[in-house]
Design brief:
CATH architecture of the largest domain: 3-Layer(aba) Sandwich
Strand order of the largest sheet: 4-3-2-1-5-6-7-14-9-12
Number of domains: 2
CATH superfamily of the largest domain: Thiamin pyrophosphokinase, catalytic domain
Distance between the termini: 45 Å
Strand content: 25-35%
Radius of gyration: 18 Å
Largest sheet: 10 strands, mixed
Order of helices and strands: EHEHEEHEHEEEEEEEEE
CATH topology of the largest domain: Rossmann fold
Helix content: 10-25%
Oligomer: single chain
Number of helices: 4
Number of strands: 14
Shape: globular
């Protein structure tokens, strides 16, 4: 079972159609969760496109949205009892502990630079690692687990074994694939269709940069495989980035 989790976070409303498509294209095995104020993006979509989209589950304590307003809809409302846990943490816990979910997609996780909510972004990024921690309790090998933080022009994957990613933009545009870890033993065994091939490559968590790579020209997919026993890695796939000036 797969879960889409919409956080009460930053959404790039210039591309609101992207979020609409993500909801409408979800298959029958995908459960849509809104973590408290995450319902707001769905309300915006409904208002803009005159549609009636709603989550399967609404989690939270109502501090960001009036949960009672949705009690007449076919939505499972799960109050958050433990106030020491964030709504996102509660949503991930619900997905894994109740459904043994091994596939999580998170929306609304990026940093809103206008408000400098860097702490929110770091916490949201760690939700993927937290989910892996919970999943391993009942699935010791954990190799089937995958999480991704998804936005209009970027995916941040949490990879525990291997991954194949698809080209998202045009062939004329460079698509960056960067690897970053906060673990002590992350080793890439091999890669395919990346400009700089990686073989038995140790990614040092103490080095203050991500290993930036890019798709081979005309390749439609690229992949990495972690070494047996390797710690996970964050794979950042960006298909609209530009280099900084200054």
């Amino acid at each position: 079972m797969k879960f889409h989790i919409f956080l009460n976070g930053f959404y790039d409303l210039r591309y609101i159609n992207f979020y609409k498509e993500q909801i409408e294209s979800a298959d029958d095995e995908t459960v849509l969760i809104c973590a408290d104020g995450g319902i707001k993006i769905i309300e915006r979509i409904n208002d803009k496109f005159d549609v009636s989209l709603y989550p399967d589950v609404l989690i939270g304590d109502g501090d960001s949205v009036e949960i009672g307003n949705f009690s007449n809809l076919d939505i499972e409302v799960v109050p958050k009892i433990d106030q020491d846990r964030t709504d996102g943490e509660f949503a991930v816990t619900y997905a894994i502990e109740k459904y043994n979910c091994n596939s999580i997609t998170i929306f609304g996780g990026l940093n809103d630079t206008k408000n400098y909510n860097t702490d929110h972004f770091l916490g949201n990024l760690k939700l993927m690692r937290f989910g892996f921690y919970l999943y391993q309790k009942n699935n010791p090998r954990g190799s089937q687990y995958h999480a991704v933080m998804r936005d209009p022009f970027q995916d941040i994957h949490f990879v525990v074994d291997s991954i194949v990613i698809k080209r998202k933009g045009s062939k004329q545009k460079i698509e960056h694939v960067s690897l970053w870890t906060d673990y002590s033993n992350t080793v890439v065994a091999s890669s395919e269709n990346l400009r700089w091939a990686m073989k038995n490559y140790y990614i040092d968590a103490n080095v203050p940069n991500a290993m930036r790579n890019e798709f081979v020209t005309n390749a439609q997919t690229a992949s990495i495989n972690l070494q047996d026993g390797s710690d996970p890695v964050y794979l950042i796939h960006n298909w609209e980035s530009t280099d900084c000036i200054g």
